[in-house]
Design goal:
78% of the residues lie in helices and 0% in strands. With 183 residues, the chain is an all-alpha fold.
């Protein structure tokens, strides 16, 4: 009797896993297809902005870096893993992180969709004029702004570490730091 229940349970588990795979694949195809369609519609508008493709690329680069900062703030040091944190706050943090990562990765998907398709001969896969320039402007803006943010964050962390070292040096000087155990 228990053997039959085990087989039925295994069958339901396999069926559930297969349904999960099919639904996951359908969602993945819809997301990438929708992103490609959105990019095909958005890239000509971005290239048509005053300043041309450079303005659109720089704007997308700034959006990408701001998304990276937002996702980092949502999951940053000391942000997650608190036992006394409310459930709704954890949910809000997860939503904020997801929005941040979509904002960070979305511009890349939009710009890639303006490039020509590799094995597609329809008019939907043609090169959108100005995409290469927008991609170059995006790379320059996101790279330089991301580097500046990284340097600023490293300077803040290093200043905190220097402050901690100075505090420990003063404690050791008084005989109250880690060196007390060695005496």
């Amino acid at each position: 009797m228990s053997r039959d229940r085990s087989r039925v349970r295994d069958a339901w588990g396999i069926a559930g896993f297969l349904v999960f795979l099919v639904v996951g694949l359908a969602v993945l195809v819809l997301v990438f297809g929708g992103a490609r369609w959105l990019g095909r519609e958005a890239v000509p508008e971005l290239v048509g902005l005053p300043g041309g493709a450079w303005t659109g690329g720089i704007g997308l680069g700034v959006v990408s870096v701001l998304g990276w900062i937002g996702a980092g703030a949502a999951y940053g040091i000391g942000a997650a893993g608190k036992a006394d944190e409310a459930r709704w706050l954890r949910g809000a943090r997860a939503v904020a992180g997801a929005v941040g990562w979509v904002a960070a990765i979305g511009p890349v998907v939009v710009l890639f969709s303006g490039l020509p398709g590799r094995n597609c001969r329809s008019s939907a896969c043609e090169y959108v004029p100005g995409t290469g320039t927008a991609f170059l402007a995006y790379a320059l803006a996101a790279g330089s702004l991301g580097w500046l943010c990284h340097r600023w964050r490293r300077a803040v962390v290093e200043a905190g570490e220097a402050e901690r070292r100075e505090r420990m040096r003063k404690l050791r000087k008084k005989g109250k730091g880690k060196s007390r155990v060695a005496r």
